[in-house]
Amino acid sequence: MADDKPTLFSPYKMGKLNLSHRVVLAPMTRCRALNGIPNEALVEYYTQRTTAAGFLITEGTMISPTSAGFPHVPGIFNKQQIEGWKKVVDGVHKQGGLIFCQLWHVGRASHQVVYQPGGSAPISSTEKPISNKWKILMPDATYSSYPQPRPLATHEIPDVVQDYRLAVINAIQAGFDGVEIHGAHGYLLDQFMKDGINDRTDEYGGSLENRCKFLLQVVQAVAAAIGADRVGVRISPAINHLDAMDSDPRSLGLAVIERLNKLQLCYLHVTQPRYTAYGQTESGSHGSEEEVARLMKTWRRAYVGTFICSGGYTRELGVEAVAQGDADLVAYGRLFISNPDLVLRLKLNAPLNRYVRATFYTHHPVVGYTDYPSLHKTYERLSRL
Ligand SMILES: Cc1cc2nc3c(=O)[nH]c(=O)nc-3n(C[C@H](O)[C@H](O)[C@H](O)COP(=O)(O)O)c2cc1C
Which InterPro entries match (predicted)? Predict the structure, then answer.
């Protein structure tokens, strides 16, 4: 009897999108869009990672001039940026791939001198800065302390929602198949959701209802502009990156999910702390690995639509997650940096290139970006020896 259980390599229908497999390119900041404009290097990078009917998510993309906190990240709020993205999207579509743009506002994870227009303080839910445990990467490759942010006034929040709405319209104009709202990893929307950061006394602070409100308003505005079936959301209730601690991540995740369930979005994407081989996390742990795995299962069961998981997935863990029904799709980050043909390698169970952390955030258009060899290139080289 044929085994019709899904595998990491079986097709999947995500709303209107027919995917040929379940391996997703996770959103990853790569700092190669010089001055915020996607260029030929990005075209090469994304097309290298495209498979026919495979699903890609772009790096975090600035929705407005106040939203940057890394050097040379792309934006989607002006004409030049839209034109730059069009070339990337065309390249991906020509090879039959599907691509969503990740919409990003870093909030307080910025720096007034180098990333904010007019030297203004970065915005947040709070006036508390990110602690000295974390450092911000400056354009000259040095690291600095995070500055004191300015809490958004209640009446300013609709303006930021409007920035998301305009960005999503631009994304569709650039040809993207949809967008992912970045509600994870201690950036602006997470700064409102987590009770370890949000100390507001207005309608955006206090109860879970109030802390989820900003994210919900953004998602609703974006869905109204382009259709809910073109919108995904990324959250990380159990990740404390940039001090984004919550006293009850389980309830926070469930509160967000309960609300998103009503909107029939394209997908929910949940990241968990990224375990290395030694049980350490890169972004700070939040409970044990078993606890996090339990939480992921709880959220997966609670969410009614497509569930994407991310964070420390190897081939084995990805295969297992889909086979056990713990996720519909698995997003791969670092392994996709160093293996442009990751999907093929995972299918063949072929050896993987190791990633070089030192070039994750450098700005060279090729080195550490598009020069990781494909299997094809490696065999060609070996056959010449
Ligand atoms: C270099 C780098 C940049 C990243 N940038 C982003 C980003 O822009 N947006 C985001 O949501 N996550 C970002 N992440 C997190 C990844 O999407 C992913 O969740 C994480 O790397 C864990 O998956 P992995 O273990 O497969 O690498 C980044 C990770 C890395 C390594």
Answer: Aldolase_TIM, OxRdtase_FMN_N, Oye-like
Residue nearest to atom 2 of ligand 1 (CA): 28
Q: What are phi and psi of 292, to 5 degrees?
A: -65, -40
Three-state DSSP class for 303? Answer: coil
Please indicate whether residue 58, judged by its CB atom, sits closer than 6 Å to ligand 1.
Answer: no
User: Is the distance from CB of 43 to CB of 91 less than 8 angstroms?
Assistant: yes
The Cα 6–Cα 365 span in angstroms is: 38
Span 284-325, pLDDT tens digits: 455 678 888 999 999 999 999 999 999 999 999 999 999 999
DSSP 8-state assignment for residue 335:
H
Active site residue 372: no
Q: What is the rounded CA–CA span in Å between residue 306 and residue 369?
A: 30
Instruction: Calculate how far, in angstroms, residue 153's C-alpha sits from the geometric centre of ligand 1.
Output: 30
- Give the other-Cβ count within 10 Å of 158's Cβ: 11
Ligand 1 centre to CA of 23 (Å) is: 15
CB 376 within 8 A of CB 341: yes
pTM (predicted TM-score): 0.96
How many Å apart are CA 81 and CA 99, to the nearest integer?
Answer: 16
Q: How far is CA 142 from CA 55, 186, 243, 378, in A?
A: 34, 21, 21, 35
Question: What are the beta bridge partners of residue 179?
Answer: 101, 231
In the chain, DSSP finds a helix count (H) and a strand count (E) of 11, 14
Cα 149 from Cα 161, distance rounded (Å)? 19
